[in-house]
Design a protein that fits this description.
The chain is α+β, with helices and mostly antiparallel strands. It folds into 3 domains: about 5-175, Beta-Lactamase (2-Layer Sandwich), CATH 3.30.450; about 240-320, Orthogonal Bundle (Helix Hairpins); about 330-475, Histidine kinase-like ATPase, C-terminal domain (Heat Shock Protein 90, 2-Layer Sandwich), CATH 3.30.565.10. The protein has 9 helices and 15 strands. The strands form 4 sheets. It has a 5-stranded antiparallel β-sheet, covered by helices on one side. The radius of gyration is 53 Å and the shape is rod-shaped. The two termini are about 55 Å apart.
C-alpha cells in the first residue's frame, strides 16, 4: 500500500541530496578552478618577467637572467625549470636546474600563454607555461616601433623566441586532494544529518494527521454528535477538519432521521395493526353473525389498503433515493393536468365548504414525466385541501414568464409556524403528534420533494402572512 509519508520522505531526500550533491560539486569545481588559476597566475607572472629580460640587438637575442633574483631555478632541491628556444629550434638559454635534461618543446602561439601538466625532469608532477614572443629591440636600432609581445601582423622584423617554464605542482595536487576529501566528508556528513533529520521532521509534521486519524477511530454511530476541535489545527488541515465536522453533522442528522423514521413507521403501523387484531378478535367472538363478519372484513380491507399504501410509498421513496427508476419525459399540458386534478376534488371541497380560486391559462406545455408530475400536483392539492380548515380558501395560479413556469398554491392554515417548514418533507412527519383523526401518513410532501429532485423542479414552502401557507413549484424551461 502506498504511503504518503514514505513517498514524501523519499522525494524530499532525493531532492535535498541532489541539491546538496550539485552544490558540493559546484563548490569543489569553483575552488579547484580558483586554485589552478592562482597557480597559473604565478607562472604567468614569471613567463612575462622572462619576456622582459629578453632583448634583441641586431641579429642576436640575449637573456638578462640573474640567478640571485630567481634562486628557484638554480637550487638542487625541488627546483623550477625554464628553457628558451629560437624559432629554428636552437636552445637560447636554459636553467641551471636542468643540468643535462631538456624540457619537452611544443609549438607555441605568438603572445598567447598555454598551460599544461607534465612530468618534470626529476620525476615530480609539474605544470608548465609556454608562449612565443618577439623580444624588444635595442632602442637605438628600433626602426618600426615594434615591442615585446606584439601580434605578428604589426611586426615587420625580429627574431621569435619560445619561452617555457615548469614548476612542481605537488602542493597544488595535495590541496586539490584535500579539497576533494573535504568536500566528500562534508557532503557525507550533511547527507547523514539530512537522512536522519528529514524523516523525523516529516513524521513530526504529519503528526496532526495521526491525531486526526486517532480521533476518527473513536467515532461510531453512538458518538456522531462529537465534533473535531479546530483550535490549534494547522491551516492546511483546517478545511479537512471543517469538512469532517460537516460530514459528522450530516451523518448525525441522517441517523437521527432514520431513527425517527423507524419510530414513525412503527407508530404509523401500530394503529392499523391494532385495528385489524381487534376486528379479528370480535369476529371470532361472534362467528355466527355473518353481517358483522362481513363488515369486519370490509374494514380490514380498508385498513390493509392503508397499510399497503404506506409501505408502497416508502418503497417508492427508497427506489427514488437509489435512482433505480428510469425517467421518461414527454410534452405535457400542465394547465389541463391541474384542471383534471381539481375536478376530481370537487366533492372534498364541497364537504369542507372551501372556496377555490383558479387562475390557469388555456394551455401551458412543459416537458416532464407524466406519472411523477401528476403525483406531485395531486399531493400538493391533496395536502392543501386536507390542511385547509372548513370554510377556508385555496388559490391556485399557473404563471409562465422568462423561460420559467411556476405553480403557486396557497391555502388557509393556522397551525404551522416557521420552525415547521424544514420538517415538512420529512417522511411521516405531521404537525399533529398524536396522529389521530385522519387517514394520512404524512408522506405526501416527501413524495413531492423526492420526485421534484429527480425532475429538476424547485419546490418552496413559505408562510407569507398569518394563517396562510404558500407553495411554489418552479419549472425551468430550456431555451428554444
Amino acid at each position: 500500500m502506498s504511503s504518503i509519508r514514505r513517498r514524501l520522505t523519499r522525494n524530499l531526500l532525493l531532492g535535498v541530496l541532489s541539491l546538496l550533491l550539485t552544490g558540493n560539486l559546484l563548490m569543489f569545481l569553483i575552488v579547484r578552478f580558483w586554485l589552478i588559476e592562482q597557480f597559473d597566475l604565478n607562472l604567468n607572472t614569471k613567463v612575462h618577467a622572462f619576456a622582459q629580460m629578453l632583448e634583441q640587438e641586431r641579429e642576436r637575442v640575449e637573456l638578462d637572467f640573474k640567478g640571485e633574483l630567481m634562486p628557484e631555478y638554480e637550487r638542487s632541491e625541488q627546483p623550477e625549470y625554464f628553457q628558451l628556444w629560437l624559432e629554428d629550434g636552437q636552445t637560447l638559454e636554459r636553467s641551471p636546474s636542468l643540468q643535462q635534461s631538456e624540457l619537452p618543446r611544443r609549438n607555441f602561439r605568438l603572445g598567447i600563454e598555454e598551460y599544461w601538466n607534465l612530468k618534470l625532469p626529476d620525476g615530480r608532477p609539474g605544470r608548465a607555461v609556454g608562449m612565443r614572443i618577439y623580444p624588444e629591440i635595442d632602442g637605438k636600432d628600433r626602426k618600426d616601433g615594434s615591442h615585446q609581445g606584439a601580434e605578428p601582423s604589426v611586426r615587420t622584423n625580429g627574431i621569435a623566441v619560445d619561452i617555457m617554464l615548469a614548476r612542481d605542482r605537488s602542493e597544488l595536487d595535495r590541496n586539490l586532494w584535500a579539497l576533494l576529501l573535504g568536500s566528500l566528508l562534508l557532503g557525507g556528513a550533511m547527507a547523514a544529518v539530512i537522512g536522519s533529520l528529514v524523516p523525523w521532521l516529516i513524521l513530526s509534521g504529519l503528526q496532526p494527521l495521526n491525531t486526526l486519524a486517532e480521533e476518527m477511530r473513536t467515532i461510531d454511530s453512538k458518538s456522531l454528535d462529537r465534533r473535531f476541535q479546530e483550535t490549534g489545527v494547522p491551516n492546511e488541515l483546517l478545511p479537512i477538519y471543517r469538512r469532517m465536522n460537516d460530514l459528522l453533522q450530516r451523518l448525525h442528522q441522517a441517523f437521527q432521521r432514520e431513527k425517527r423514521l423507524t419510530a414513525d413507521m412503527a407508530h404509523e403501523l401500530k394503529t392499523p395493526i391494532a385495528e385489524l387484531r381487534a376486528m379479528a378478535d370480535v369476529a371470532l367472538k361472534w362467528p355466527d353473525n355473518r353481517q358483522f363478519a362481513l363488515e369486519s372484513l370490509k374494514e380490514s380491507q380498508a385498513v390493509s389498503l392503508r397499510m399497503e399504501s404506506i409501505v408502497e410509498t416508502m418503497l417508492t421513496l427508497a427506489r427514488m433515493e437509489g435512482d433505480r427508476q428510469r425517467i421518461e419525459y414527454a410534452v405535457l399540458d400542465l394547465a389541463e393536468m391541474i384542471r383534471l386534478i381539481w375536478s376530481a376534488q370537487q366533492e372534498c371541497l364541497a364537504s369542507k365548504k372551501i372556496q377555490l380560486s383558479l387562475k390557469l391559462p388555456e394551455r401551458c406545455e412543459v416537458r416532464s414525466n407524466q406519472h411523477m408530475l401528476g403525483c406531485i400536483i395531486n399531493n400538493l392539492i391533496d395536502n392543501a385541501i386536507e390542511h385547509c380548515p372548513a370554510k377556508g380558501a385555496i388559490s391556485c395560479e399557473l404563471r409562465s414568464e422568462h423561460n420559467a413556469v411556476t405553480v403557486l398554491l396557497e391555502n388557509t392554515n393556522d397551525a404551522l409556524v416557521e420552525d415547521d417548514l424544514p420538517h415538512l418533507c420529512e417522511p411521516l412527519w405531521r404537525k399533529d403528534a398524536s396522529r389521530s383523526g385522519d387517514n394520512h401518513a404524512g408522506l405526501g410532501l416527501s413524495i413531492v420533494d423526492s420526485f421534484a429532485q429527480h425532475l429538476n423542479l424547485e419546490v418552496y414552502f413559505k408562510l407569507p402572512k398569518r394563517n396562510l401557507f404558500h407553495v411554489s413549484l418552479c419549472f425551468l424551461m430550456e431555451d428554444s
